[in-house]
Design goal:
mainly alpha; 9 helices; Serine Threonine Protein Phosphatase 5, Tetratricopeptide repeat
């Protein structure tokens, strides 16, 4: 009887552990490679899928179309929100860039948080605010976004202290 109880408990523990593992794996699943990744993905983004494209090489009109399509298929994917923001920023549509960066940042996407910091540091679409930029760069760096540390280190208001 005792052996049966032990076996049942071991089996139950195994099932619970497997359920947690499946749940964690499901949360880590990213949307598959999409044309948005090729046309607007950031090559330095640790969350990217594919190789991405340098900002100077981006063609914003097709990138915007591809990322809007990606978001129709995967409306809650922060990677596509960030990449759409990137494309809008390259197209000088700063209100839309801010909108999509904020949407991705609200989901904890470090690249978007960093990009908001850049926009605050440069006064792109928002008043220039070095303190806000520093806060955003710090947040993105804490999330493991490598360029954010460089941005924080070179931020004018930080260098003056």
């Amino acid at each position: 009887m005792r052996l049966a109880l032990v076996l049942v408990l071991v089996l139950l523990a195994t099932v619970v552990a497997a359920a947690f593992a499946l749940s964690a794996a499901a949360q880590e699943v990213k949307a598959p490679l999409h044309n948005c990744d090729a046309l607007a993905g950031n090559p330095v983004d640790p969350g990217r899928v594919g190789i991405g494209v340098a900002t100077a090489s981006m063609r914003p009109v097709p990138a915007i179309a591809a990322c809007l399509d990606a978001l129709k298929q995967f409306p809650s994917e922060p990677r596509f929100m960030f990449q759409l923001g990137r494309a809008y920023r390259q197209a000088s549509q700063l209100d839309e860039a801010l909108r999509w960066y904020r949407a991705a940042a609200d989901k904890g996407y470090a690249g978007a948080i960093n990009s908001l910091g850049v926009m605050h540091s440069l006064g792109e679409g928002v008043p220039s605010d070095c303190a806000k930029a520093a806060q955003l760069f710090s947040q993105a760096a804490a999330l493991g976004y490598p360029p954010a540390s460089d941005n924080l280190r070179t931020l004018a208001c930080i260098r003056q202290v």
